[in-house]
Amino acid sequence: MSPKTLYDKIWDAHVAHEAEDGTCLLYIDRHLVHEVTSPQAFEGLRMANRTVRAPDKTIAVPDHNVPTTGDRNAVIENEESRIQVEALDRNAKDFGLIYYPVNDVRQGIVHIVGPEQGWTLPGMTVVCGDSHTATHGAFGALAHGIGTSEVEHVLATQTLIQKKSKNMKVEITGKLRPGVTAKDITLSVIGATGTAGGTGYVIEYCGEAIRDLSMEGRMTVCNMAIEGGARAGLIAPDETTFDYVKGRAHAPKGAQWEAAMDWWKTLYSDDDAQWDKVITIKGEDIAPVVTWGTSPEDVLPIDAVVPAPETFNGGKAEAARRAIEYMGLTPGQKLSDIEIDTVFIGSCTNGRIEDLRAAAAILKGKKIKDGLRAMVVPGSGLVRAQAEEEGLARIFQDAGFEWRLAGCSMCLAMNPDQLSEGERCASTSNRNFEGRQGYKGRTHLVSPAMAAAAAVTGRLTDVREMM
Ligand SMILES: CC(C)[C@H](C(=O)O)[C@@H](O)C(=O)O
Ligand code: SF4
Questions:
Q1: Superfamily assignment of 290-466 in CATH?
Q2: Is 222 annotated as a binding-site member?
Q3: Which residue minimizes the CA distance to atom 2 of ligand 2?
Q4: Which of this chain's residues are annotated to bind [4Fe-4S] cluster (predicted)?
Q5: Which of 60, 82, 335, 392 is most exposed by smallest CB count within 10 Å?
């Protein structure tokens, strides 16, 4: 048998049909659904008089539009948001889907809920009408976003038409230095490869520094594979994965667990597998980083300065000039001198319990800078409950943070949590495009520990100074 990558193995196990030109029909194990990209897909089904093929593999949860303050059952003010959430409610009921409505403690960001409930398992194909579906690749699943017409196709058939991507290996060798986290890894990879570096590839992240990460950290790394242009990112499952999955509500049990483990243990890239592209980064070389511009690739170590646009080649020089202007910065300015107005801790990149622990560890016994707006938005109701039980919520509140309900919140401006014009935010989310967190808002992407450090000083801060 010819050697295979992990991606090859999962792909081969799911091909239901292959056409002569290599286009395949892939079986889909899990279809995650949120309110933004699904209404038209369900409308399409209704119009064609179709049902959902596998409602027991279709998991729906509202997340993007839900307000994160006050009463969960209150009517959503914004009409468009309200219509989308109400449509999901109705569709979940009409089509008999698995559903976590807004007042269910298990509700949260779809990419946090799937793994938490044991819906996401190694070796699966997982899709969602959402680009950050890549998160689920942390389990050794082939997981990626799809468009709304594909959502309809998967709802109707539980299959997806796909062409195979190329194989890319991103190896992070050795150990990380203190203060360096999964977020710094994933941003540094994008810094090295650019936002188009992964185009046409599925990335497998490997190496000692990846192995050493918890499942939460691995999800953070895979979450941003899409920001690096890749179709998906994945990590081979190991004991860390199996320990995380075991006992979750929808994980296999008993004899089914044993059978699953037999398959899961075969899920790794063979030694002599062929890679179309390989990137290697030394774990020791990664620093705590921040973004200075309006693309995730605009990233530098916190002890660097805002770059001069002339130092970039070709079209990138103009992009950098524009980004620096939009961000209201000056070339040569120290990144650690940039003052911020807001801190946002949350999102499917960094809204899990370990992220909250990392931020709380920095904040314990401290206060946020006077006049700063800071909020923690747990990724799910269960993360929130656990953080309360562990005393983290108290630490955040005592420091001056708002303690919110679960949702996408300020990761994107689709709900009341937004930046105002010119407002500058240290954010644990994954996108820093113009207007991403609100019209003319300015976003600096950071890890949870770095966000906490920035909240204390009121400027972008090297977390290592606080450790
Ligand atoms: C709204 C949704 C389609 C979008 C995505 O696909 O990523 C959102 O989750 C985002 O992060 O920008
Ligand atoms: S938290 Fe942000 S990145 Fe994740 S699904 Fe929601 S909007 Fe998209």
A1: Aconitase, domain 3 (3.30.499.10)
A2: no
A3: 411
A4: 348, 408, 411
A5: 82
pTM over 0.95: yes
6-164 fold: Aconitase; domain 3 (3.30.499)
pLDDT digits (tens, 9 = 90+) for 8-44: 999 999 999 999 999 999 999 999 999 999 999 999 9
Ligand 1 pocket (Cβ < 6 Å) reads 36-37, 64, 130-132, 145, 412
246-263: pLDDT as tens digits: 999 999 999 999 999 999
Instruction: Specify the pLDDT at position 73.
Output: 81
Residue 414 CA, closest ligand 1 atom number: 1
Measure 409 CA to ligand 1 centroid, in angstroms: 12
CATH label, 166-238+269-285, candidates 3.90.550.10, 3.40.190.10, 3.10.20.30, 3.40.1060.10: 3.40.1060.10
Same fold, 6-164 and 166-238+269-285: no
CA of 7 from ligand 2 middle (Å) equals 24
Enumerate the domain spans of the chain: 6-164, 166-238+269-285, 290-466
Q: Which residues pair with 250 in a beta bridge?
A: none
The tens digit of pLDDT for each residue in 391-434 reads 999 999 999 999 999 999 999 989 999 999 999 999 999 999 99
Task: Give the pLDDT band (50/70/90) at residue 314.
Answer: confident
